[in-house]
Amino acid sequence: MVAWHHEPWCRYPGEAAVAWEIRSTTDEELDVFVGTLHAAFGRFPETPEEGGGGVWWSALETDRNVFAVAADGRPVGTAGAYSFELTLPGEVLAPAAGVTAVGVVPSHRRRGVLSAMMRHQLGELRRRGEFLSVLLASEALIYRRFGYGPATYTQRLTVPRHRAALGLPRARGTADAPSAGPDTGTVEVLRRAECGEILEEVYDRYRRAQPGALSRPHRWWALGAGQPPVSPKPRYVAVHRDADGVPDGYASYAVGDDTLTVDETIATDDAVFTALARFVLGHDLVKQVEFRHFPPEHPLRWQLADFRAGQVSGDTDWLWVRLLDVPRALTARGWFTDGELVLDVDDPFLGEHGRYLLTVRDGKATCAPTDRDPGLSLDVSDLGSVYLGGTAPSTLVRAGHIRAHRPGAAALADALFRAERPPHCLHWF
After folding, report:
1. The CATH homologous superfamily of the domain defined by 154-316
2. Residue 105 annotated as binding site
3. Is 113 annotated as a binding residue?
4. Residue spans in the chain of domains classed CATH 3.30.1050.10
5. 111 has binding-site annotation
6. Is beta strand 132-136 parallel, antiparallel or unpaired with respect to 92-104?
7. What does the subunit section of this Swiss-Prot or TrEMBL entry state (predicted)?
8. Looking at residue 186, what is its pLDDT?
9. How many CA atoms lie within 13 A of 142 on its CB side?
10. Does the annotation count 143 as an active-site position?
11. Whole-number Å distance between alpha carbons of 382 and 373
12. CA 102, CA 116: separation in Å to the nearest integer?
């Protein structure tokens, strides 16, 4: 679909008002799309891995890419989207557009090109019937104004080898919180090229139960599109198998400069994660082990005999979430506390405003327009931040982002929006 965006405020001294054509790309224009995007960031495309795969753009969905085209026909901006499933609280799998490849060439920045593309894209997502959009923000200042809010977080955990001993207490588990040990499985070391199907299968089991996780479609694995271990770059993989020999976890890693770096650790339960952590922490001839994309509230630090041995760094946002249809989004996820709350939601980028009565009973929600007085007033970007349960509404009240209109409204929102476990996303796109 072609849409012209006339933005008369984008007029520079001596220039006429500009109009951008926002149009879809074709398969034949993939190289132009990739070249324009790289020019926007001042970079050059990397060389594909041997075998023809391994470049991140090989998984782009051409029919979901758009150009911003100047009056002379030159592409000056790009934006794309992937088709993912996002795991919501309650182990609900929901379709979500993964916005990617967003850039404007330096000669055309600050003229309204990005806003035009974002407005066009959000309209297209709605026309497709999608109610959630997610992205990884290259800069934190850019995407909040388009209605996205940070919803999951990640960090690095670095452990010196000489302080890496685990001192697990002899605690009994419960049905709701099983103990992390003892482990009855085994760990096998494979090369990345030897275990592609195992990685794909184990990750898919993991992401279906982890709030905030995104699917990795088969074509991503087949094309090696992304970062290790999706890409075919050389890696060793510690594969954990249960007592029956079924793979139920893995850790992808490489050694360099006296550091063993773990790209990601995927485990179907805490005992498997502990077994994989014990394995990499026991690796010889390295001075430290660095876990990338480490979940902020993971219990591994408490399992170290020396609590201070776990050095946390790189604490940052990861997945940003935008709600495109508030009632559909709120009724899609699972809930763990009964109650009702009136939300007054403002969406300034799309010029929309709505007030909704959220009612939760027995894990299900209804959400309908209402004229009742609100309990909370918030921007749609802040609703995106609390949606997966990774950001407490009361935190945003204290920060001045959300306004609570009556005592107890923030505490009720905290109880309602919590998830069964902290949301976490590992997937890079």
Report:
1. Gcn5-related N-acetyltransferase (GNAT) (3.40.630.30)
2. no
3. yes
4. 326-417
5. yes
6. parallel
7. Homohexamer; trimer of dimers.
8. 97
9. 15
10. yes
11. 19
12. 12
Residue extent(s) of CATH 3.40.630.30 domains in the chain:
3-130, 154-316
For the ranges 48-52, 121-125, 322-326, 414-418, the lowest mean pLDDT is seen at: 48-52
Instruction: Please give the pLDDT value at position 1.
Output: 31
* The model scores a pTM over 0.85: yes
**DSSP β-ladder status, 149-150 and 153-160:** unpaired
199 is in an annotated binding site: no
Helices then strands (H, E): number in the chain?
Answer: 10, 20
Tokens of 142: 């850019």
Average pLDDT value for the chain: 92
Q: What is the pLDDT of residues 237-261, one digit of tens each?
A: 999 999 999 999 999 999 999 999 9
State yes or no: 102 annotated in a binding site: yes
3-state SS string over 77-94? EEEEEEEEEEEECCCEEE
Beta bridge partners of 75: 69
Catalytic residue among 273, 291, 387, 429: 429
CATH superfamily entry for domain 326-417: SCP2 sterol-binding domain (3.30.1050.10)
Residue 178 has pLDDT above 50, yes or no: no
Question: Which one of the listed residues 131, 143, 206, 387 is annotated catalytic?
Answer: 143
43 carries a ligand binding annotation: no
Nearest 5 degrees, angle CA 196-CA 197-CA 198? Answer: 90
Q: Residue 335 is which amino acid?
A: W
For residue 429, indicate whether it is catalytic: yes
Length of the chain: 429
Band of pLDDT at residue 53, cut at 50, 70 and 90: low
| d(C-alpha 117, C-alpha 119), whole Å | 6
| Cβ neighbour number for residue 26 with a 10 Å cutoff | 12
151/322 Cα distance (integer angstroms):
9
Other Cβ atoms within 10 Å of 95 Cβ, number? 15
- 214: which 2 tokens? 């995104």
What residues are paired with 404 via a beta bridge?
A: 376
In a 13 Å sphere around the CA of 62, the CA atoms on its Cβ side amount to 11
103 assigned binding-site residue:
yes
Q: Is the pLDDT of residue 2 over 90?
A: no
Is 125 annotated in some ligand binding site?
Answer: no
Architecture of domain 3-130: 3-Layer(aba) Sandwich (3.40)
Are 75 and 94 contacting, i.e. CB atoms less than 8 angstroms apart?
A: no
